[in-house]
Amino acid sequence: MSTTTETTEARDERGKAPAGERIADWADGRLGIYSLAKANMRKIFPDHWSFMLGEICMYSFIIIILTGVYLTLFFHPSMNEVEYHGAYVPLQGQLMSEAFSSTLHISFEVRGGLLIRQIHHWAALIFLAAMFVHMMRVFFTGAFRKPREVNWLFGFLLFVLGMFTGFTGYSLPDDLLSGTGVRFMQGVLLSVPVVGTYLSMFLFGGEFPGGDFVARFYSVHILLLPGIMLGLMVAHLILVFYHKHTQYAGPGRTEKNVVGMPLLPVYMAKAGGFFFLVFGVIAVIAAVAQINPIWVLGPYRPDQVSTGAQPDWYMGFAEGFVRAMPGWEIDFWGHTLVLGVFIPIVIFPVALGIIAVWPFLESWVTGDKREHHILDRPRNAPTRTAFGVAWITMYMIGLVGGGNDLWATHFHLSINAVTWFVRIGLFVGPVLAFIVTKRICLGLQRRDKDKVLHGRETGTIKRLPHGEFIEIHEPLSQEQLHTLTSHEQYEPVAIGASVDENGVERKVKGSEKLRAKLSESFYGEDGQIAKPTVEEYKEITSGHGHH
């Protein structure tokens, strides 16, 4: 009887279900929302602090979009010259572009405009920094392996497109600093053989600075690049959902399961709180740390260069290559080729591309076509870890080169000394970093092997009856033993027999020889420390020579 009463009360006067339920039924019948939510809302996500790096990327990107929409309401992407009569008195009466004038208007006359500008700029810097660190986490732990190679490429493209989106946005105010950066880019375009002049004329609508580049950069900055990035981010997240989430090795964790928290309600609640935490931190930074004060620099003029002109950090290493390169020029068929600019700009995409293709190179060297959902500890992949550190070292040395004048003035050094440090460091630094990192990884592997076989050092000293002093070792727990021994070790690929089954000499391809050499360097005696075997462990722990 009570059931009948409740059902009757739940319906309206016409005997139909409530409006909200009818709308939900209508939407589910056309979009399949209920079945989609039922299948995915209980998806399990592992709980580890390093996975938050990707969330910082996503949240800062959302903040960039939100603040960018607000700024577009007041910004005028025009290079038409106007006389300034705004609130900033020191620049009143000066001629400037509408772009610069509207940026001053946003900064001094729009309520909250300066704060929104600074949040937008800081969020862009943090987005790219988080992308950089997130990609390195994925790289060092081997999370890019099958089936995630495509998702690795999506992340790489997001990072590269983010760099150019930041550059176009940085150039929009048309101030002296950003104008100097655009002038640098125009010099890069002019260094391209044969078509450089045409590219420059096309981009700027005539001789530099032309009258169109702000409007063109504006379209690229707010529409083209963000649209592509949004599509890539959605595809990236879809693939994260489609593939099982990676997880660190531990008891109960296999290639076929995921141990963690469900998406609803636990993970969503934590993610929502983390979004507001990221937003709050960026807002505090923007409120207390001034960035890009264009009113101090003034409007751009082609006959002036601001002192200490530096790009944002993510473009610094590209400029560092150019600043470190000698000013080489050659005459070829009546044309001057500016190799001092062209060669570094060719190296720039090559240096980025090496990281992009690494998953495919590693898969080819190992011959491993299996799916991997358990992450590596960086020490257990010494060659990969050493290469990643070498790449970061090259990046950071290039970044020093991009600010060689500031390093010289702030630390009272010769700018020539800083430049020569960068020139030498770009070749020597990555090699030293590779060697040192690999030796550290191998040393950590040896320590792990010793801990497995002998246990953890307790610091407790015991004297035996015959007078010998020994240190008591505490056996590791099963969980610790699993963590230290669960990683897989590859055998180096061998070239194989030089003759076939008929005794005929087989021609060995160059690619086969190269693969064998790389495999030996990756997984030979100098590339990894053999894990302790079960027999070794039993012999040690049985009491023969173990304290």
Automatic annotation (TrEMBL):
Pfam families xref list: Cytochrom_B_N_2
Q: Where is the signal peptide?
A: none
EC numbers for this chain: 7.1.1.8
For the keyword ATP-binding, the answer is: no
Superkingdom to which the source organism belongs: Bacteria
One Gene Ontology MF term: quinol-cytochrome-c reductase activity
Keywords on this record?
A: Cell membrane, Electron transport, Heme, Iron, Membrane, Metal-binding, Respiratory chain, Translocase, Transmembrane, Transmembrane helix, Transport
List the catalytic activities from the record: a quinol + 2 Fe(III)-[cytochrome c](out) = a quinone + 2 Fe(II)-[cytochrome c](out) + 2 H(+)(out)
Tell me one GO biological process term: respiratory electron transport chain
Q: What's the cofactor? A: heme
Q: Where in the cell is it found?
A: Cell membrane
Membrane protein topology class? Multi-pass membrane protein
Main location, first listed in the record: membrane
Q: Which InterPro entries match?
A: Cyt_b/b6_N, Cytb/b6-like_sf, Di-haem_cyt_TM
Q: Under the cellular component aspect of Gene Ontology, which terms does the record hold? A: plasma membrane
**Stretches that traverse the bilayer:** 51-75, 121-140, 152-172, 184-205, 217-242, 263-291, 332-361, 381-400, 420-437
| Root EC class | translocase
Taking every annotated instance into account, which residue ranges of this chain make up the domain Cytochrome b/b6 N-terminal region profile?
A: 23-249
Give the matching PANTHER family: CYTOCHROME B (PTHR19271:SF16)
The protein here is known as: Cytochrome bc1 complex cytochrome b subunit
This protein's species is: Streptomyces roseirectus
State the taxonomy lineage.
Answer: Bacteria, Bacillati, Actinomycetota, Actinomycetes, Kitasatosporales
